[in-house]
TrEMBL record:
Record's signal peptide: none
One Pfam assignment: TetR_N
This protein's UniProt keywords: DNA-binding, Transcription, Transcription regulation
Top-rank lineage group of the source organism: Bacteria
Keyword check for Transcription regulation: yes
Protein name: AcrR family transcriptional regulator
UniProt-listed InterPro entries: Homeodomain-like_sf, HTH-type_TetR-like_transc_reg, HTH_TetR, Tet_transcr_reg_TetR-rel_C_sf, TetR_C
HTH tetR-type domain segment(s): 19-79
Length: 202
């Protein structure tokens, strides 16, 4: 029997060269979309910025919209994650600080522009919708855990998320000052106090 092992291409190792190339391409895409939007987005420029050949971009993402959406989702993880340390106040404060930091970057500003009626392309809005869906799901999971542990009374997690994140978007979009951890502490403190004070007592 002939040994055909040598004829086979080497298996891709997790975290190997292909993963590093993909990471560079995604980073370059996110940077270019944040800088120029979708209109001026070109594979050639992505390849040049990532330091790879254009064929590497085409091979991994034949559809440019898939590349844009994946890049935006990859680099928006901090905007959609809520940790669970067992302290709901601290976790929500950390979430707001990370959210503000993300929104203050060029990439974050691109996402914010997509919220406007005359914002970016449908591709960016699609990515934004998926990011917001992730945020809603993460908040729902964290709030459910807090309710189960007795940290919070039963509460609509979507309402809580909107109440605490609204001031972040307002301050960042206004652009006159930074949203600080002290701001986050105040916002979370007021919202959680209100939720606890208005909870029905059985």
């Amino acid at each position: 029997m002939t040994d055909r092992t040598a004829d086979r291409p080497p298996a891709r190792r997790p975290g190997g060269r292909n993963a590093r190339v993909r990471a560079r391409i995604l980073a370059a895409t996110a940077e270019l979309v944040a800088r120029d939007g979708i209109a001026g987005f070109r594979y050639e420029e992505v390849a040049e910025s990532a330091g790879v050949h254009k064929t590497s971009v085409y091979r991994n993402w034949p559809d440019r919209e898939d590349l844009v959406v994946e890049a935006m989702l990859r680099y928006a993880e901090d905007l959609a994650s809520v940790a669970d340390t067992g302290d709901i106040h601290r976790d929500l404060v950390d979430f707001l600080v990370a959210l503000a930091g993300g929104l203050e970057t060029p990439f974050g500003r691109t996402l914010e522009q997509a919220l406007l009626p005359a914002g970016q392309s449908a591709v960016v809005r699609q990515a934004l919708s998926r990011i917001l869906d992730r945020r809603v799901a993460a908040m729902r999971e964290r709030v459910a855990a807090a309710v189960e542990r007795g940290e919070l009374p039963p509460v609509d997690s979507a309402f809580l998320g909107e109440m605490i994140s609204g001031p972040v978007h307002l301050v960042v979009n206004r652009g006159t000052r930074r949203f600080t951890r002290a701001d986050a502490e105040r916002v979370v403190g007021v919202v959680l106090a209100g939720i606890r004070a208005t909870a029905p007592h059985g």
